[in-house]
Amino acid sequence: MSLVVRNLSIEIEGRRVVDDVSFDVPDGARVGLIGESGSGKSLTALAILGLLPDAATATGSIRWNERELIGLPDRELARLRGDEIGIVFQEPRTALNPIRTVGRQIAESVRIHEGLGRRDAAARAIAEAERVHLPDPAQIVRRYPHQLSGGQRQRVAIAMALACRPRLLIADEPTTALDVTIQAEVLELLAGLVARDGMSLVFITHDLAVLSQIATHAVVLEHGRVVEHGPLSRLLTAPASPVTQGLLRDATATLWRPGGGA
């Protein structure tokens, strides 16, 4: 399965915030969308899943496995979300429901998409918690989000996104809110799961050092437009655009390993 984005434009109340963006994510590829705040990278990701704000309109084409997603009824998009396409958001504290146990939240997608009963879904939640290396999975699934650390909450969010073994994972700045040590652990976990399941990845970040740990190709955005794209190894060693050159200068020193992940 592959994702093909062509001439995607997004307008919010008459203002164009994403302008003529095109890129491909072949089956099994790991592609980064990178740019500063306001570059349009997160809006591009939300457009893929039909999660744009009500005031936003998208034109162009987003094809998943040759199926056009723009204009697809929400009911049909809902069948794709969490099943064929998973998403991990930047801040799990807001993405998780504070009044539900994390186990119930992990189990929800398998109950919806795979039709599992309550008991089987609960057992599956424990297995998924173990898969993302949460400590004492049988106990941690009984806890609420506020009882977990930031890194543990993000692992729960990853477990939720991957429970149904999607073919594409969209990760929207999933490590930004974490300290450097936990950030590295989560990146390593994500990279391992993506490789193990053979899924495609769209990883969104403003940090080229972070992207170097997990992606092989990158699409650089500025003010809603693509300014450069190609293998990450080339962007790290011979960036052509001033935007990429600036991102390279600003790369987080503590995570920087030249050529890492490329």
TrEMBL record:
A GO molecular-function descriptor: ATP binding
Keywords: ATP-binding, Cell membrane, Membrane, Nucleotide-binding, Transport
Cellular compartments per GO CC: plasma membrane
Keyword Membrane in annotation: yes
Principal location listed in the UniProt entry: membrane
Subcellular localization, as worded in the UniProt entry: Cell membrane
Pfam families from the UniProt entry: ABC_tran
Keyword Mitochondrion: no
Membrane association type: Peripheral membrane protein
InterPro entries: AAA+_ATPase, ABC_Ni/Peptide_Import, ABC_transporter-like_ATP-bd, ABC_transporter-like_CS, P-loop_NTPase
SUPFAM superfamilies: P-loop containing nucleoside triphosphate hydrolases
Start and end residues of each ABC transporter domain: 3-248
Family listed: Belongs to the ABC transporter superfamily.
Protein name: Oligopeptide transport ATP-binding protein OppD
